[in-house]
Amino acid sequence: MTEASHIPQQLxxxxxxxxxxxxxxDHHRMEGRCPRCKAVLWHSAKHTDTISFAxxxxxxxxxxxxxxxxxxxxxxxxxxxxxxxxxxxYRMWIEQEKMLAILILLCSLIAPLMHLLLxxxxxxxxxxxHFPPHFPQWLKYKCWMQSWSMLEVYAMGIIVAYVKMMHxxxxxxxxxxxxxxxxxxxxxxxxxxxxEEQAWQHWEQNKPA
Length: 209
Ligand SMILES: [Zn+2]
What we know:
Elements: E1 10-13, E2 20-23, E3 31-33, E4 40-43, H1 48-68, E5 72-76, E6 79-83, H2 85-94, H3 98-128, H4 135-148, H5 151-165, E7 170-173, H6 175-192, H7 196-206
Antiparallel strand pairs: 1-2, 3-4, 5-6, 5-7
Helix pairs in contact: 1-3, 1-6, 2-3, 3-4, 3-5, 5-6
The structure holds zinc ion.
């Protein structure tokens, strides 16, 4: 049995310019780049699956405090207030901004959570060398959820809100912001170090007969 490799087998399409390339396992270089547009086709860095798995588990641990702890605390004309991610979604819902609430719920909460969960499950299957029949679906849903996960847009919104409000009152970042930043880092690391091609190779070599 051949080991799963970072290098795509036989044929691969460049993700940026769609150039079809022939690859072989003799291409033992640190990095493979498209000859036409120089896009990175593969890295041969080791332990990437461990980094992706650790980032996904850390992200899952951080998820609950990131969505429930207050993000910004503000004091304005004698009034104090704070709000969390989940509290903001609830507030939008009761103020009849239901479409916006659903969109934020999907892109800032459900999609990142499912993305981390499926990354952890796929990485765990690979680590345990146990591939249930649902493995391909998990891998496909993981990639689908990754494209819907837009936690960074929410983080950008926090920065804009902070800058806008800092002149009108006393605004300070709270525990939720730190958890959210750490969660965002975990989401980025778990995506950056996850090699879909390698996961498919593992499945191809170990799928149940
Ligand atoms: Zn290319």
